Amino acid sequence: MAVTPLPELPSRSLLTRYLTLSGAEIFSKLCVMGAFVYLAHVLSAADYGTVELALSITVFFVLSVESGMGLYGARVVAADASRIPRLVPQVMVLRLVLGVPAFLVILAVSANYRIAGLGILAITGIAVLLTPLLTQWVFQGLRQMQWVAAGSAIRYVVFTALILLTVHRGGDIRLVAVAEVSGVAALALFNAWILHGRLRIALDWHELVSGTRQLFGQVWFMGFSDLTWAGLWYSPALIVGWLAAGRTVDVAWIAASVRIVVALHTFVWLYFFNMLPNMAKELSVSVDAWRALIRRSIATSVWPAGLVALGGTLVAPWLMPLVYGAAYSAAVRPFQIVIWMIPVAWFSGHFRFSLIAAGQQRWEVMVSVASALVTVTAALTLAPFFGSVGAALALLLGGTVNLVLAVRTSRHLIASLSIVAETRAAVIATAAGLAVGLSVSHFAGAFAGTVAGCLLYVAVAARQDNDVTGWLRQLGRRSESI
Predict the structure, then answer these.
(1) What is residue 114's DSSP assignment?
(2) What number of CA atoms fall less than 13 Å from residue 67's CA on the CB side?
């Protein structure tokens, strides 16, 4: 079958693509946060917890259906765009094969879950059936990030608009599920328009069965890695909802905290998504080149990571009730714990992504599996006694285990690396800022304590010879050469 050549596409620099994606993520996260802040104010805490629980359950099934195919597909398209006509149908069929039984399981869970009102799962589950139509990975592979960004913006604008227009105090919480599915459907329609209207891709259905089978063999491991990631972040809330049947308010406290931190974590992920090619290139040169890259990155990134954790801890007593409402003062302590996942994830990411860059993906997945198991075990142990606080502690413990295992595995498979000198000042500044901030908070309130603690931290950071500008310039030059 003759392949219709792609129309000429604009070429943009790595920095432009990165800023486009980052801008879209910021806009999308603001839309989602605005929608959920609104929901927290118009719904009871129990109903809000039910919504968060339903969406958390759905995440597991969506990731199981996606199974890493987006990442794999983008890599294939980037290497050979002529494979798009055959690869798209294979991805669609495989996702459909996985999606139908996943949807049936969601219906069973919705019918038999012990918490009343969780029937919204039956609606949010429709998003699983729409997954085969999400082809933004094609645009990513073609380096047309403006379409990826536009699709994300459309999805979350539709979701947020429907939330604001249809969900009101005392209303039907199933409308939240309708908004979620509508956003996914809008993204699917946009993707189809770009794929067929702009790119004029004619799908090739030849050798579909054998191609789909081969595709599954290539992606199942990446899909399993996505599930372990979901297990790390979302299992504490699910376990709280399962143990505290009928008390979804406990889910609300931990879910509200995790939602903010996951939004912040997106930018940690984008940092390493952008840095991964540099890691791979330096490893191909020498281990010493990789050591220099990681040391420089840690010396720079440890400061914003510490500031986020410090500021979040100090401002939480003022921020959480302000954003979510007075009823969410119970979410302060879980948030103060979960926010420390940002520096933990930022630090561990240097070693997790180094394993991927070194071709040791299977070991990275094993690290993630072990971390998820620790998180689940800790949540089952702590949540019955400490509720949402116990769930938050379980999440942070799982993240810490991930950090330790990633460092040790990287040391064994790549090379040893000492970063004490790069982190010592930031750790001391964080401890000092926390001590000062908590002391001032006790006498003058959380906002004043946050300002005092963060100003001390920033003052110490400003005195360090981080050469941030030079580092970013160097990173940009190396990225452009790849």
Answers:
(1) S
(2) 22
The sign of the torsion formed by the CA atoms of 342, 344, 347, 353 equals: negative
Please give the share of the chain, as a percent, with pLDDT higher than 70.
92
Model pTM? 0.81
Weakest mean pLDDT among 19-28, 239-248, 421-430, 445-454: 239-248
CA atoms within a 13 Å half-sphere pointing along the CA-CB vector of 367: 26
First to last CA, the chain: 33
Backbone angle region of 381, left / alpha / beta, with phi > 0 → left and psi within -120 to 50 → alpha: alpha
Nearest Cα neighbor of 254 from 38, 64, 42, 48 is 48
Identify the H or E element spanning 352: helix 341-357
Domain boundaries, the chain: 9-206, 264-473
**Quick one: DSSP state of residue 91?**
H
Most confident of 78-87, 259-268, 317-326, 369-378: 369-378
Interhelix angle 208-243/249-285, rounded to 10 degrees, is: 140
Q: How many CB atoms lie within 10 A of CB 63?
A: 21
Query: What confidence tier does 66 reach under pLDDT thresholds 50, 70, 90?
Result: confident
Name every residue whose Cβ is closer than 8 Å to that of residue 352 and which is 6 or more positions away in sequence. Answer: 272, 364, 367, 368, 402, 406
Token pair in block for residue 204 = 């090739």
Name the residue among 197, 193, 163, 164 with its Cα closest to residue 181: 163
- pLDDT bucket at 247, cuts 50 / 70 / 90: low
Q: What proportion of the chain, given as a percentage, has pLDDT over 90? A: 41
Residue type (1 letter), 264: L
Q: How far apart are CA 408 and CA 377, in angstroms?
A: 22
